[in-house]
Records
---
Amino acid sequence: MDGLDPIQVRADEIFFSALEIEIDTERDAYIEKACASDARLRERVDRLLSAVSESESFFSEAAPTQITTADVVQTLDGLDKVLEKAGRVFEEEDEEVGKQIGPYKLLRKIGEGGSGNVYVAEQSAPVRRLVAFKIIKRGMDTKSVIARFESERQALAMMDHPNIAHVYDAGKTETGRPFFVMELVSGIPITRYCNANGLGLRQRLELFVQVCHAVQHAHQKGIIHRDIKPSNVLVDLYEGGARPRVIDFGIAKAVHKGLLGDAEGFTVIEPFVGTPTYMSPEQAQMGGDDLDTRSDIYSLGTLLYELLTGQTPFDAKVLAEEGVDAMRRTLMNQEPQRPSVRLKNVAPESNSMLTTKGGVAELERALSGDLDWIVMKALEKDRTRRYETVDAFSTDITRYLNFEPVTARPPSRRYQFQKMVRRNRGAVFSAAAVLAVLLAGLTVSSWLLVRERVARRRAVTAEQQAKEARKSEAQLRVEAEAREAIAMAAVLLNREQFEAAEELVADVELPVIKPSLEAGAVFLDLAEWNLQRGEWNTAAAHMLRFARAVQVDKSDLTDDATRGLLCVSPTLIVAGDQEEYRKFAWEIIRRFGQTQNPIAAEQVIKMCITFPCDEALLKEVEPLGGILRETISNFRGRTQWDIYIHAWRMWAVSLLEYRLGHYDEAVYWSRGNLKSVDETPTRIAMNHTILACSLYHLGHHDEALAELQAAEKIIKVGLPLRLERVVRIGNNAEGYWFDWFSAYLLLNEAQQIVPSPL
Amino acid sequence: MDDVSTILNSDPSEGGKSAEELFPLVYNELRRLAGARMAGEVRQHTLQATALVHEAWLRMVRDEDRSWENKASFFSAASLAMRRILVEHARRKGRQKRGGAQKRVDLEITDLADSEPDEKILLVEDALIQLEQRHPEWAKIVVMKYFGGMTQQEIAEALGIGERSVRRYWTFARAWLYDRIRAETE
């Protein structure tokens, strides 16, 4: 399409006017004059004129298709779906109350939703009971809906959790519409329940954790919900307490899947039931082809966001008002506001916590920090950065409730991260698909828009299919299995079931590990556990897997997750694996060698040259020393933390000087470092070892011996104490275990150089 | 040009219902009609698409509590429905025939006049989408005439313009579309 090509616009005008002129010679004269000497314009006009007679036979009759009634019905079925998306839902005859459908008698209507109506029904056989009876709206391909439900039925039957409402049965009505029969839950949506009962923060979180347990249970049975939102999480009263119940498990999958792309021969938009604000980015993007449990985690994150603030992260209406292009930009790039920030724009009536004594200010204080990060981690647009399991998510909330440190952290360099996400996601993220979703929840009556969306949807689907086709199915399966195993291991590790977790991931091959911070956490945990048991080699193997898993993106080594890479080198050396250490160090240089960030520079130095290395590598590391020297000379910090960081930077410089053979410099820096008021034992011990070696090389043998003994004294006392519980990475004051390992290994090195007096 | 569009978007204060407003009713009627035929024994009975609209119309006027401004406005609404039905139908058939997710019509038709009915519809649809962006008013006439099978007189009534104007717009739109299609298939 050539948009508003000015020549074409002009040609249309001339042509239209020319048709008015009935005398040939006059018409020719007019055209001649109007086109002046523009040859291209003239050509266009001539083409249009020649089309007048030629088009006559082409359009001699109305659209010529002979169409059978069956075709019309089928086509109308397909159109229903399209129209529904545009908000053009036509009135349908309700299934009448009192009607008998199989063993179910409809008693009264209790709900009307995007996907269908819900009734209370009485089941007569095999058991007599009241059930919820949900009839799906017309426009679904009944046969596939039921077939998909059947395929999951076994798994659904295995679910047995007090917070999950059972789905009993599926079938079709006389008129061919699919229905589902579910356990009758007489609750109200969780968000409404919380506000109506004025629940406080702790109560809300406790309720939410129960919801997480239910979803986790389903995930363990292999069932993804796909449509978690307040109206599917109902709260009823049970034995005097509030009990959340998740309904509609298995239904979203059955109803949604068949409406994708061309699956049933129709080109339609999959019906996103309800509001798109609870839907994960990948769900909006891919529609449902490649959803996994992390999609539910996102939806849960949205639900928690709403429970805490009273608002969903994105307001569908606001987005729609921005216009198509602005909406696209927003959705591609915009991170939702942190809950504590969002609070400022919330009307008090949408969140009962705002009307209590402290109001906004108090809630803001409570949310900012841990809760903000927990929610934001669940809402990461890149699913590899979300919690890997619902269990990890709810464990973090429980930790918060117990005043323990949580695992979620502020992304250290949010801006860079966002840029990275955009880069990685590339063109695949189709804002058009998201747009379609957003509009689906609103009432849009523009006929044009429907068609536009269908066209875009087609383009997106084709692109997606092409992408997937490139990966062989076998490969995908192996990757999926590995991911499942890792996810399960994460759950077990949270319960400290280390043996079982280890067994699960024992067969996971290095190349199939997909980058994921949560997978990284699993392997790091396992590595540490093995270190504690003295299983050095197994620990080293896990460390390598960890290193692979955290190659998530263009991380710059400044965030918490990649800081775990500091554990790798000491573990490999302890396990005696020099070759892997060498490879690892080169990999670090390849990825981070060009950094200009002093935090990263220090880490690279520690990872690469704490242990003897080859000359070439040393050359690559050398420039990083310059970055550190500069920040050290500009040091103005006053806080304990500043001083701590400063001291470690000085240590990195003295280490570098020592490895480069600049012993005078090394002595200078180490001595300076030992004057620091920071008392981290590992750093002090390591400075003594560097001093011992450097002084010995300079011929000051007595002084060297004294330094060696100082190091020995610290390490011999500190290391055994620390080794008793490797499985916590440690803290600044007691020293991280990997630093203790490094200190111990450096001491060994020094002992080779400085002869003991005995 | 303006007068056409204002009329199609209709002035309810003058008692006219716009095609947009009528559409759901017409659509539902078509659905009911098709469903009824399905239930009978004429499942595979072939019919001229526009005949379905006429039949729907006859059924609706029998229904006393539905008072239509006139037949023309009903037909213009029905044309929208027929367009969707015919295009979707052609797409489905094309896809089945080629056994894949063919997105575009094959552009190897040597003589446009010989193109298969379904292919023809898709060619017209693609060009019509372009015409709608340029000259939406004239595109409406194409929808009524080509997809709705309305006569010039019916279109003139529905739009409240003279028959001569309808003829002019139609000639223009027809040539314009043909030019587009020809360019696409060359």
Note: Chain A touches chain B through 54 residues (CB under 8 Å).
---
Amino acid sequence: MDNLGMVFGLTGAAIAALFAGIGSAVGVGIAGQAAAGATSEKPDLFGKVLVLQLLPGTQGIYGLLIAFITLSRIGIMGGQAPTTVQGLLYLAACLPMGFVGLGSGIHQGKASVAAINLVSKKEDQFGKAMIFPAMVETYAILALLISILSIFGIK
Amino acid sequence: MSDNKYIDAVTRIHIKENDLLSADFLEQLVQAADYDACLQLLSEKGWGCGGQKDGQLVSENVKEIIKSERDRAWDLMREVLHEDIRKLDIFLIPIDYHNLKAAIKETRAEHAYEDIYMDQGAFPAEMVREAVQKKEFGALPERMAKVGEEALGVFLRTGDGQLCDVMIDKAAVEELVATADETDSDALKEYAELTAVSANIKTALRAMLTGKDQEFLEKALAECKTLNKTALIKSALVGIDEMVDYLSGTAYGDGSAAFDKSMAAFERWCDNLLIERMKIQKWNPFGIDPLVAYVLACENERKSVRVILSGKQNGLPEEVIRERIRETYA
């Protein structure tokens, strides 16, 4: 039971990496299906649809970042083993990134699919099409910010 | 997750929608000097040439050109949907039931007629023909087998081809609606309902014009959700004004003017209504509905080209052709 704080902290890191990673995997996956469909009809669209496909991939990176920071502070990759309360605080700090990463990754993927469809029909609308999925990114960034501030705020 | 199943297929189809014939192009065809000029314009567009722009037309015959375009649309559907192409079998129901009617009529013919059958149904025409000839309907789907057996009995007993047609048409509509209801596709349900409504109104009008009684109408009309069968029968027994009055109070009120004009005008109105309702799918990236809309869009496109080419062949004035062409999806 001495390491309970570390267990909580590690659980938080796992949640951040796991859920945000799943969100991105689903998002990039469905956007990839649309991108493949578009490229099979119009190979010239490859560059544009690739950018749109990659947009939902950032949540996974944010989750990884939060997991790394957490691991480096709970005695696994550095820092000191936290107390039980500190461990719970690390767990709570990781939740925004984990859950918002999951939801925003999937929905950004759907927005990317719609944007790829738009670019496929109207190639000149790429700039506008990119804005729609990019809007979803705002919420992933907000969650990242809260998770980072929370982790660094734990004494 | 079923929404995500057709993402690549839908993206491909949305790109293909850019190649559908536009209203401006159809107007160009209408204004073309003659039939050959129309063919020239179509070949430049790749229509009737397997999609190859400036290609060689498969034939100069309207029927062959239309068939090649139908084949091209269905080949594309098979390519993007793979084994899920069976989900679009609903569009083949009218073909199967047509073949059933043909096979029953052929039983009283003195010799065999090959060209009355349509290919590309869900079941080979020969299979339907054999089932009727041997009076063994087991290989056909339940509803089709049941109506086939009944209609064959009626036809052999009375020789009443019209009654036989009406029974089979009603069963086809009911099969269409039941099949659509089993799916989770709103577009298929919309298609089935509008097909049922259109079939009911047309049958009621024909029955009224030929002085059929209530019993006939009861047998001929299928149940549908947006039209009251009893009220429609009641109005059809009185006269056309009563029917127009009844329809004016339904969701199909806008069509009553076309209905009052002619059967062809009403059919065109129904086709246009369906395409109008499908247009929402042009920007839908998920599910099978955009594919359903594309199949219907291609069908409307073929109808318009057929009207224009036939009109040009028969020297019809531009205004007459123009008022028969369908709304475009593009």
Note: The CA atoms of residues 93 and 149 of chain A lie 8 Å apart.
---
Amino acid sequence: MPESAASNEPYLKLEGIRKTFGSFSALKDVALAVANGELITFLGPSGCGKTTLLRIIAGLETQDSGTIIQGKRNISRLPAMKRDYGIVFQSYALFPNLTIFDNVSYGLVNRRKGRAEIRRRVAELLTLVGLADAGGKYPGQLSGGQQQRIALARALATAPGLLLLDEPLSALDALERLRLRGEIRALQQRLGVTTIMVTHDQEEALSMADRVVVMNHGVIEQIGTPQQIYREPASAFVADFVGKVNVISAVAEGGGRFRVGGLVLTGAAGAAAVTPGTRVRLYLRPEDVVINGAVAANANAAAATVTKVEFLGAFCHVTVQVAGAEDQPLLINISRHSIDRMNLVEGSPLQVGLPADCMRLLR
Amino acid sequence: MTTAVAAPRPSVVSAPVRPRAHWQDRIAQGLLLGVCAFLIVFLLAPLAMLLVKSLQDRDGVFVGLRQFQEYFQTPALRQSIVHTLAVAGTVTAVTIPLAFTFAYALTRSCTPLKGTLRVIALTPILAPSLLPAISFIQWFGTQGLLKWMLGGASVYGPIGIIISSIYAVFPHALMIILTALLLSDGRLYEAAESLGTPTLRKFFTITLPGAKYGLISAAMVVFSYTVSEFGIPKVIGGNFNVLALDIFKQVIGQQNFNKGAVVSIVLLVPVLFAFVVDWVMQGRQQAQFSSRAVAYAPKPRRWFDASMFAYCLFICALLLAVLGMAVYTSFIKLWPYNKSFSFAHYTFGLVDAGVISSFFNSLRMAILTAVLGTMLIFGGAYLLEKTRGVRGLRALIRMLAAIPMGVPGMVLGLGYIFFFNHPDNPLNGLYHGMTILVVVTIVHYYTSSHLTAVTALKALDNEFEAVSASLKVPFYKTFFRVTVPVCLPAILDIGRYLFVNAMTTISAVVFLYSPDTQLASLTILTLDDAGEIGAAAAMATLIVAASTTVCVLYAIVTRLLLARTQAWRRPLAL
């Protein structure tokens, strides 16, 4: 992997980036290093500063302070024209009056390349995005997904060192989005182009990225691989924003034990260090809760009653009321198959176990 | 790479980053500065000069508000204010219901021939405002065919001014109200219907509130148009004094420029007031409109549709009667004694009298205004909306571009006299030339054209410029290759608007022409003064013909363009 080789020398390095719009602080001292050939996603709710950060990297906005180094070149003050990147927007931004061929060759014509060479390059790019025959059409004659592929081809035409994708899939329907997700990732890996993608869709971020940068209120909450982000969220925000999670209010009792209503739970990494009497929150993913047969060996076992079964297709969201902690409903993921087998309906009794090693303690 | 929680770094407060501008950005900023300079020199400076002159006496001594005091102590002049406001108020009160009913018929009924009715209703725009005045003299004047209808009252005076103004402003009011009614959401009516709401209640709870801002906006436009209008009272006003005429009398009659400036400022007040109200209302109307609204589709209702059609026919007949009378007058020997067909007014009255050259001057002026004005206004709007940097300058240009709509043409023209006729002004050479006529016309009609351009540009994807920059393509290349072709319909629309207005305008140019640059619309005034009403009608007819030709050309070219070069607008059936 190019990542390990380049880990000492990041391709793109941001330091101390700040940006305010009037009194609103969009970015507060953001630092980030992107390795060569890596695909990084900026993930966060709207208004978290992810798009602003991307636009600063592109030179479309200017940071109030901070430096940007791209490939050993300090580009902090350079205008967009002088930077080296290709960009794809949510709106595609294809020139409606130009044919697909003219759109893709738009940046090539300016580089005084020969006609034959341009023709060859455009054909190559159109084949790359799977639209070899589209050259003579106009953007308005293509579907949204096809237009976005063309926008990608246009951005890649000049072989830029950095590819910036600003919510590229948000305007597409669900099926097209899923298909393009895989295509973009495969293309990126094949070309080995360093890529930054902005998205608010966590599934998209987790499935495509080498690393995910989770942002909130202008601050980077966590940087990590998709697995790390999901399994070891660094903050309550990350745990909450990425995937579903049960948040259990508890009071520390010391010795790694917590009181939840009438129950006492053991576990969570770092739990022993908490001063007794402290109010804490325990985070547990719905799919980590174990039920019935699997509970026996578990320390944190309790009796529960099913209060709601929400059918979602392959699996179900089952809400249960735990005896002793009735005021804190617990959400569990159970496969449809298991539900049928156990014949779970509203009111069914259920044994649940909260595995200590899956629980996380976050403040 | 390992997981790293971004730890807040020690905050070193570094110097703010100053982006380095690309030389191409500098070009854009330089051009923008040019647009700003144009508006300052040709709009702001003349108006400022006018203000200064109103505070000076004839000898250039500062006298503060003394001239205003004198003005308000002169009963005849004070009376002009009352006259002006009364006439404008009446015209507004009559025109708005007329136009609203017409627009209502076009949008809410199944009236046949909607397109034709609309085109006829808009024809007054093609004519100089002097045309209805001439025409009404023919209908209701001393020798008028329908003089008996006035029951002894004279058409020369408030009656003539009011009916001529109604004719001239009707299409302006109609267009604004039409837009307001078209913007309403059809689903509101469906919701009301599903709740069993009676028709009258729907009208008062949905239609009227929805069109409220449009109606107020239209009323303001009609009011300020009438207040500013100078040609109509000149021709048909008799001894009835109004403000715009007072300016003309002070300046041309008495050569008292400073008094003229005082009257101009007095005239500016109601017009600026109307302009501000209109501006606020337009903002509200846009906010009210949601992009998800569904157009209202009227269902046929026999009696309602029939009565609406009858109303529209009646209005169109009246409008055509006015236009028709002027054209007719130009083709007969002498109204009402010898009604035989003749080209004499054209051959003797215009060509042999040597005034036909003013028509060609007008054509030249209108073409120059359309071409140069469109380039300047669209280019300026593009630079304003789509390039980066120099924020303060942009705010200033936005403000300057809005001002012309609130300034009557005569006020602007008088400002030009003060500014450009000043011996110390290096631009003094422009005075009395064709250039200044073109410039004043462009500035006078800047606001509407600017708004058309901005609307068209805002409809484009905001990221075209960003994409071009990332592809290292200069902005001007993208401007010519993408922006202009995509905005071509709007650009042609601006050109047509400027052409038609340049052909018909009198108020802005009346102080600025010279014998060599006499314009057709001004010749109508002169001919009318000399009692040559047939020749005046002939000249008015020529102007209508020229404007109509351009509008027809515009329609054809737009259609061809949409069909051919803009093939991309048609989605291909895949």
Note: The domain at 35-50+344-574 of chain B is CATH 1.10.3720.10 (MetI-like fold).
